[in-house]
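Schema walk-through. Below, the input block comes first and the output block second. Nothing else is stored per chain. Lengths vary across the set, and this one has 121 residues.
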Amino acid sequence: MDGPRQDPRGQLIRPYAVTRGRTEPTRDIAIEAVLVTTPQGRQEAAFAGRDKHMIADLCDGRALSLAEIASHLRVPLGVARVLVADMTGEGMLTLHETSATEGYEERMELLERVLSGLRKL
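--- output ---
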């Protein structure tokens, strides 16, 4: 006899359930912003919920952009932005934003590199 039948749709969780209905982050974070888990984040990750724990693990020991985090989690960018903004506010992640003095060309080049990296995933 076969084991329990799996739903062919997989585990579907609505994005607003992950963010508890919030659609706006507590701070604006650029898609190319780079994030790294803090020592505090490593300690608190186990108690922070599944998605935050996954983000803390992803960014532990390596810097990832917001876009890469969304891709790894397979969630919409807006959901990742809300979670990451919460985590930076809680001291779990360090945010490294691009310089405000960068011009349009530099930002586009960075976005092209991020897009290229996402395509390789």
